[in-house]
Write a structure and sequence with these properties.
Blueprint: E1 3-9, H1 10-17, E2 23-27, E3 37-44, E4 49-52, E5 60-61, E6 70-79, E7 87-93, H2 100-108
Parallel strand pairs: 1-3
Antiparallel strand pairs: 2-7, 3-4, 3-6, 4-5, 6-7
Length: 109
């Protein structure tokens, strides 16, 4: 199992988090496999910065990916059928919800 840290555009972040959008189409430059974990961090492509929501405030710019809103999804399915050359569709699963600390401990074995 690999952990892939990826940017996820702000317009898709909440849709992926709540399960409305249960897939990602990505360039397959990371050799994605079923069982891999995606760490998807909220990213504002217009501002070219990571974002973080707080309970009382609108999303704010943060200094690093480690401060950004991040969701973790397991790759449950992968196919390149009918995709542009070098791209893959990844099915996302909610079976695993962990904090960054728990993911780091999982990766360490």
């Amino acid at each position: 199992m690999k952990i892939h840290e990826l940017k996820l555009d702000e317009k898709y972040f909440d849709l992926v988090r709540n399960g409305t959008k249960a897939f990602e189409i990505r360039k397959n430059d990371r050799d994605y496999r079923v069982g891999d974990l995606l760490a998807l961090s909220r990213y504002d492509s217009k501002l070219k910065s990571y974002r973080q929501n707080t309970f009382f405030l609108k999303p704010g710019v943060v200094d690093s990916v480690h401060e950004a809103d991040t969701i973790f999804k397991r790759v449950s399915y992968a196919t390149d059928f009918e995709q542009k050359d070098g791209y893959v569709v990844l099915g996302l699963s909610d079976e695993l919800v962990l904090s960054r600390k728990q993911v780091a401990e999982d990766a360490d074995g």
